[in-house]
UniProtKB/TrEMBL annotation, chains A, B:
Organism: Aequorivita viscosa
Keyword presence, Endoplasmic reticulum: no
Family: Belongs to the FMO family.
Protein name: Trimethylamine monooxygenase
Sorted UniProt keywords: FAD, Flavoprotein, Monooxygenase, NADP, Oxidoreductase
């Protein structure tokens, strides 16, 4: 019998998790299907593959990454650790709980670098259009090899959509913004705080982007940072130089007016107004339509498109859990594709989805959210042989992290946590986060001599 | 017999010219085919439809427009005048030769606003994928209605690609640019000089974007403007505050190093490095692959895709002539589609294309270029009933414009030209261009009282 063919769109953390899941099977001596992964960037890593470019890339495709310079993990690394490849495995020594982007990117790559994963991936290749043939039950994917400007098509038995959902900005219009004289960009196009030194910055939004970009601009020398929220303020204990105001009503030249009647002049506006789930390569009937939430509708076990479970979506949830969730999803998806995990009927799947949606509707606090996603992870872990880990302990770490942020938005990254994979306690970083302006891997992994640690003695 | 169906991709100046061409026919009492025009923006005008947004638009599609605030025509309006709708028809009085964007946008719209053009256009709709059936000889176009997030497909007998080629940035990599701390964008994302006041700006490139953005930044208060050229400097008489240097070799933080061994610190880099012809919705065999030049290969009469002339490309040339060229092209395309203009065999078309390519290869100076495109326009005008105009005179105006720019890059926009359509001499603008910081239509059309013209007397 001809081998089944599996297409994976995207070689970011989710797509790589899917490849890794099949490799794990191969390492057990099993035969695996034919796998082809399409990645529009020139390298793997998805979001973690930083680009200095904004707008569109060298081949004119929208830039995938929303990462910026000086980005440090905004959650403890112990909450995202692969359970089959620990931080100890990779770094051979304890590191801190909040590493910068290059260090996390290094970690993601470590697991797959020694494998044949790269052979499965066609880089600089974007999926243009997907169709599904009801008779043959196969997907046809039209691909565009950007490097040589050539289109072609291939057939697949299963299609894994792992293209992420933090790439396409959601950017509302505010009256008068078209006449704002300074920089007015979406967080997606923010590449670091350097250019905002000494400036008065307005960030519209109250989620992770606003919080993190605000804190970075403060750290790197912005004159003032104002966060404008639609419904509720972030509400942590802000240091002097950062404040929260209600939503902008409109702009007049460089002045922003707020709902509470106040107004202020700004040098730059950064819209931290979230992202859209966007799948331009999928036809209507295959397209996941959802806002960013913890349990998007139409996905059984959060991954199988209920109308057509041969279509699999990875990582489409709003995320507390990240890498480890993608893994848990990919392992279940793999087992379905090789016939190890059987799906119940569409109607039964619908009932299961509805059960989760109902639970999701009742969530109120951040702690509720964490518990909900922990339950989801446990459910996934029960369905495959992905190495189990202590989900409850990770849940507790997430809650501690939420408390830490509330208490000290500038200091929470100095805290340490214990790995549930290895039991290793994280190291304290050689420099407090607020004093550390260099986010390179070299600087991060550098071990100062003892004297250097006590500058007063020199 | 069923009416032929014509699909037009893009409702910018070229797409609108195509609609207008059919309307002209209808006004002569002829029956016209069924026309559907797809426009991904919410309004018509293509490039002339200014957006404050950069990167992607509200539905996550790459932003089409490359226009910026304070953009004034960089060529005399008499060189782009529609020969069937004059500036006098529209403004009812003489205006200056170099109007700002809102005034030209107003003019483009004037011709079609009173017609039923809008009924032909589906806004917020993007073409996702085109295929051609060799048996039925029809195109199937898969469309995405962005507003309601819904895909569908339609069949067409002819497909007119009028999607422009100044939308997809070409942005080379320069070593070290990823560590440049300031703004680093492509000209496509430049939205006005305000945010660069007092700054030292580096523009990489030596074509229209570099010239015009450089001059605007100078006019609106940049501290210094440096243009960096690959092959040849623009070489006009630059005022103090603007200079040209050879190509950047690399960056180290905020310092740019140049081929001549010099180096300088900059606050911002704007890459004026041109655009790519990009047709992500077309398969390989229908895709025009060309650089920006005066006669792209594979297009008979500059419009008919030679392998499949049912596929028509408008406005794909590098442009001296613009609106009037699109018109001349659209009229010929129309006549082909209604069977009035018969194409010779593919081989004969190939000979004609090669003749033009050979001529194109021999062009050396800007004047040569103008003559070449004038010849092309004359050829087109001989093929349809688009109202003829004195092309030689327009050619002369282009040459005068080239001389004017060389002599006074800050003053050439104060010159006036005579319309070849109406014979009207352009008015002198009430304010010299360098002193005019307001580019609104209201300000432009405003007629000052006589005393106001002599401020010394007040």
């Amino acid at each position: 019998m001809k081998k089944k063919r599996i297409g994976i769109i995207g070689a970011g953390p989710s797509g790589l998790a899917q490849i890794r899941a099949f490799e794990a099977l191969k390492n057990q001596g099993e035969e695996i299907p034919e796998i082809v992964c399409f990645e529009k960037q020139s390298n793997w890593g998805g979001m973690w593959n930083y680009s200095w470019r904004t707008g569109v890339g060298k081949y004119g495709e929208p830039i995938h990454g929303s990462m910026y310079k000086y980005l440090w993990s905004n959650g403890p690394k112990e909450c995202l650790e692969f359970s089959d490849y620990s931080f100890d495995d990779h770094f051979k020594k304890p590191i801190s709980s909040y590493p910068p982007r290059p260090v996390l990117f290094d970690y993601i790559q470590g697991r797959i670098k020694k494998s044949e994963a790269r052979d499965f991936i066609r880089f600089d290749t974007t999926a243009r259009w997907v169709s599904f043939d009801e008779k043959t039950k196969k997907f046809t994917v039209i691909l565009d090899d950007l490097k040589i400007d050539k289109t072609y098509s291939e057939e697949f038995d299963y299609l894994v959509v792992a293209s992420g959902h933090f790439s396409t900005p959601n950017m509302p219009y505010f009256k008068g913004i078209e006449n704002f004289p300074g920089t007015a960009i979406h967080a997606h196009d923010f590449r670091g705080a350097d250019q905002f030194k000494g400036q008065n910055i307005l960030l519209i939004g109250s989620s992770y982007s606003a919080e993190d970009i605000g804190v970075q601009c403060h750290k790197h020398g912005a004159n003032s940072v104002t966060l404008s929220y639609r419904s509720n303020p972030i509400g942590v204990a802000w240091p002097e130089g950062i404040k929260e105001l209600p939503l902008v009503t409109h702009f007049e030249e460089d002045t922003a007016y707020f709902k509470d009647g106040t107004s202020e002049k700004f040098d730059a506006v950064i819209m931290c107004t979230g992202y859209q789930h966007k799948f331009p390569f999928l036809p209507d009937e295959l397209r996941l339509k959802t806002k960013n939430n913890l349990y998007p509708d139409h996905l059984y076990k959060g991954v199988f498109f209920n109308n057509l479970p041969q279509l699999i979506y990875l990582g489409m949830q709003d995320q507390y859990y990240t890498f480890n969730m993608f893994d848990a999803q990919a392992w279940v998806a793999r087992d379905y594709m090789i016939g190890r995990f059987k799906l119940p009927s569409e109607a039964k799947r619908r009932i299961d989805i509805d059960k989760w949606l109902k639970k999701n509707d009742k969530l109120e606090t951040g702690f509720d959210d964490v518990d909900f996603q922990s339950d989801y992870i446990k459910d996934l872990l029960s369905l495959s042989d992905y190495p189990a880990f202590d989900v409850d302990k990770v849940g507790e770490m997430f809650k501690q992290w939420l408390r830490d942020k509330e208490e000290g938005i500038l200091t929470y990254r100095d805290k340490t946590f214990q790995s549930v994979v290895t039991g290793t306690m994280a190291a304290e970083h050689h420099t407090e986060w607020m004093d550390e302006l260099d986010d390179s891997k070299e600087r991060y992994l550098y071990e100062p001599e003892e004297e250097e640690l006590i500058p007063d003695k020199l």
